[in-house]
Design brief:
- 49% of the residues lie in helices and 10% in strands.
- The protein has 532 residues and is α+β, with helices and mostly antiparallel strands.
- The strands form two sheets. Strands 1, 2, 3, 4, 5 and 6 form a six-stranded antiparallel β-sheet that branches.
- Strand 8 and strand 9 form a beta hairpin.
- Helix 10 runs antiparallel to helix 11 and helix 18 packs across helix 19.
Length: 532
């Protein structure tokens, strides 16, 4: 009996397949793909000496990869569109359907060894939180073995029209029906769910652990967990070319352009403290403390406690959907909030959710940031300046702000000497602090940029320096916009020799940055809110 249970753990069963599907009743169709997943599992374990033996995979990891490949094949056979949306995203953002590989023999809309090799690489890298060489010969060989196994099955594999109906979205759809589809796509679809589900679990666990460490047992964990999960529906970006759930869904669904744009616009979700005003048959009316504008929230999106009265405070997440604001997530109500609390929120203009501003104000803020960016370039000569330490960085920033405040015909000459002081020569130190200006966002500080600039200019690098350079360039301390400038203006020869990779890091830098730091590619929200 014990041996039987042990063998069962090494097989894939229907419930494990159904966990990845937006339905819970199986048919002979599902049974076919579960049998296929088990065949793939056998191939993976039989050939693990090729590549996977070097990776600390558990049986669950092998099963996860087998299910992912079987689902990819299902996607191909039934033309579901999840994979094709992903490679088209790569084409749009990076210039190629897939990174790393020679695609001269690639056949769009057919099984490709490159697809399977990429899936194996992605699964292994994410499972172990490593960055394996995607061009490693044994990944390629394993991808070829699996392709040769799948190709003869193309004519016999069953198809389904289920997803044709599932991904149809009418203009008059209830938002929460769409949200149900987003929930499945983010947490359980075979590509995005593989990445996001463990992250969601980790985020919720970390949050709860921190609250318990603070002995904060009064907090409603359920509401906060709900908010964390919501982030993965609307804002979090994946390592699949920085796709969000809603962007990916928009590229897969059968719907009008208006629906697709509404899906993409949900990234403008805002969290705020709102003063309740009134209600009618269709809307709740609220106001953000620092704004005079009333906001209408669709009543259909949540039920307001009957005891709520004018002046009470609502803390909620609002989603823009088809021209209206909806609540997505839980609502917390605080009756009779202290006037001091309201005044603090009102005075702290930086706390005002950016997308609550009227469109005209948003554009003025973007325009103001654009002007300041141009002044930053004018003052420092480039979009970042390296300094020796935090003190010197703060002095440089003070000098720039003084220059910015003196921009008039009578004062330009008085600031020119200060300007020349900061237009320095190339950085020659390995340590320091950089101030950079990211268009439409504002100034950022980085202790990594000086080291990267230094290493790029060296004639030779040690193995440790190469490792440092790669993970510094593709870490979250350098914004993609700043990286683009660095790679265009400093020597890059080290990047095509780095870490013995067989592919060109420079040619694939757009994908790697999105893979390593996807959330750097979200909507740009200015950190300076002045319009003058």
């Amino acid at each position: 009996m014990a041996r039987k249970r042990k063998l069962e753990k090494k097989r894939i069963f229907i419930p494990e397949w159904l966990e990845l599907k937006p339905y819970d009743q199986h048919t002979s169709y599902d049974e076919y793909y579960v049998r296929l997943a088990n065949k793939i599992l056998t191939v993976l374990k039989k050939n693990k000496s090729i590549f996977l033996a070097q990776i600390p995979y558990t049986i669950q990891d092998y099963k996860s990869l087998a299910l992912m490949i079987s689902s990819y094949f299902e996607d191909f056979i039934s033309e579901i569109g999840i994979w094709n949306a992903f490679i088209q995203r790569n084409k749009q953002e990076c210039g190629f359907l897939l990174p790393f590989y020679d695609l001269s023999q690639y056949e769009y809309d057919y099984l490709n060894m490159e697809d399977l090799s990429f899936i194996i690489w992605f699964h292994a890298s994410k499972t172990t939180e490593s960055f394996y060489n995607p061009d490693y010969m044994h990944i390629w060989l394993l991808g070829g073995i699996i392709k040769n196994m799948l190709e003869p099955l193309i004519d016999e594999a069953p198809t389904t029209e289920y997803y044709d109906e599932y991904f149809k979205i009418a203009d008059d759809v209830n938002f929460f029906e769409v949200k149900g589809k987003l929930s499945w796509f983010a947490q359980f679809s075979y590509l995005l769910g593989f990445e996001f589900s463990p992250q969601i679990e980790t985020d919720i666990t970390n949050f709860m652990t921190k609250q318990l460490e603070r002995n904060d047992t009064n907090i409603d964990f359920g509401k906060y967990a709900y908010a964390i999960v919501d982030d993965y529906y609307y804002k979090k970006r994946s390592s699949f070319c920085a796709y969000t759930t809603t962007e990916w869904m928009a590229d897969v669904v059968y719907a009008s352009d208006k629906i697709k744009q509404s899906l993409r616009d949900t990234e403008k979700r805002v969290m705020g403290q709102f003063i309740y005003l009134k209600q009618d048959e269709t809307y709740y009316y609220v106001k953000y403390p620092s704004l005079e504008t009333e906001f209408r929230i669709i009543r259909e999106s949540f039920v307001l406690d009957s005891s709520t009265k004018k002046g009470d405070l609502l803390i909620a997440h609002l989603i823009p959907w088809m021209g209206e604001w909806w609540v997505s997530g839980s609502v917390m109500i605080y009756p009779d909030p202290p006037q001091k609390q309201l005044e603090e929120v009102k005075q702290d203009y930086m706390s005002t959710p950016f997308f609550l501003y009227e469109e005209e104000i948003q554009q003025k803020i973007y325009s103001s940031n654009k002007e300041m960016y141009q002044l930053f370039i004018e003052f420092f000569g480039k979009p970042f300046i390296c300094t020796k330490n935090n003190y010197q960085a703060s002095k440089a920033l003070e000098a720039f702000m003084e220059y910015n405040n003196k921009q008039s015909p009578t004062n330009k000459s008085s600031s020119s000497k200060n300007q020349e002081k900061w237009q320095e020569e190339e950085w020659k130190e390995q340590e320091g602090v950089a101030i950079c200006y990211v268009p439409s966002i504002g100034t950022m500080m980085s202790e990594v940029i000086p080291e990267v600039v230094y290493l790029l200019q060296q004639e030779e690098l040690s193995d440790d320096d190469e490792n440092m350079l790669f993970f510094s360039i593709f870490g979250d301390a350098i914004h993609p916009e700043t990286l683009t400038y660095i790679l265009a203006n400093y020597p890059t020869h080290h990047l095509d020799e780095i870490l013995d990779f067989d592919f060109s890091v420079l040619e694939n830098q757009a994908f790697i940055k999105r893979y390593q730091c996807p959330n750097d590619f979200g909507l740009r929200i200015p950190n300076i809110r002045t319009t003058s």
